[in-house]
Amino acid sequence: MTMKEKQRAAKWSLLLIVAAVAAGGVGIMLRDGGTVLAQDFGIGTNGNVALLNELNANWTLPEDYSLELLEVDGIAMEWVQEKGVEQERVILQLHGGAYTRSLADNGATYRRAAVQYARLSGAAVLTVDYRVAPEYPYPAALEDALLAYGWLLGQGYAPDRIIIAGDSAGGGLTLALGLYLRDNGLPLPAGLITMSAWTDLNYRRWTPAYVGDHPADHPYISPIYGEYTGFPPMLMQAGGDEILLKDTLAVARKAEEAGAAVQQTTYPGMFHVFQMLFPKLPEANSAWDEVEAFIQEVFAGLAQAK
Question: What range defines the domain where residue 91 resides?
Fold first, then answer.
């Protein structure tokens, strides 16, 4: 069986997929009476998981950055910023984890990423610990992302000083939040960043826990079915070897056709959310360089449709 055939068979036979992050590690647990190799899903090898665990275990908050734990209407959030600097811009980070893993379940991964975003952008970073399935299916995550965005507006941050960023499920949630804001006449952020976005939860033989009793092809659940007229500039990254690659390519194509400024980069040979292996993985560092350039262009008002 070819790799393409193995990927297709694995995708459609899947009944349960849970992003498993142990001590900050990234993996996937599958259950369908058989064994499916992790690399068939493009998330990398056990060596990459071990490296992520090592990076998280050895990480400490840099002395020149502060971490504040917040609670907004019962939802936990984390605020990271450089000490002694009044921030006028902010990154809203929506974490990954298949909509079933909380921020705490992901270990230090997203605190590392928050500091990385802060360093590259000169902005503060708000990471929301949105409610997760199966206890809280759709629309809980979207409601909490909207709450976080609204809180930022209420704190005085103008929409053109906010960028929303997310990976995997958080990437899909980033797009869903953009769709909701646009559809309801609410101010859109200056830009969007997705890494290995999970945009299509509409499977033949499996209903992800987040879907609940709702149609899986609803654009706020599966943004691949959305329409992207009026969207802000977007940076969409993906790994060339990940099975979710089409989730990014399809949305990028639709957004470009709708007139959005889309910067889509596929990193050859890379796996799902490879960016989190910075600074050890050279390709991850290149991806973050691209993120930095995109953020600077967006905040400078230079990002334009081709």
Answer: 66-299
